[in-house]
Amino acid sequence: MRYLMTTKASDTAPDEKLYAEMAAFVEELTAAGILLATGGLEPGGIRVTSSGEEITVTDGPFTEAKEAVAGFALVEVRSREEAIELTRRFRRIVGDGESVIQQVFGP
Prior knowledge:
Layout: E1 2-8, H1 16-31, E2 35-40, E3 46-51, E4 54-59, E5 69-76, H2 80-94, E6 99-104
Antiparallel strand pairs: 1-5, 1-6, 2-5, 3-4
Protein name: YCII-related domain-containing protein
Pfam families: YCII
Family: Belongs to the YciI family.
């Protein structure tokens, strides 16, 4: 089962301890074949909306940018519970904030 785990930006600036703990966590998950992809996302982005035949492209940042996803990890695990446990471990490392877990369907 694949899950996309996303996190919103935090007001807390990362320090050397956080970088070291995250590096170890990422290395562990990569070595185990669990972590398929990870990365940070630009804060602004581009919004593309459609209404009938009209397509509108708007450059960010947007007023709700504080609600935007700041980073992601794509993992392959055996169960929903395993995805939740990995996200709990991640939150313990990075501290206060919010993450969302969504199952990815398809090949």
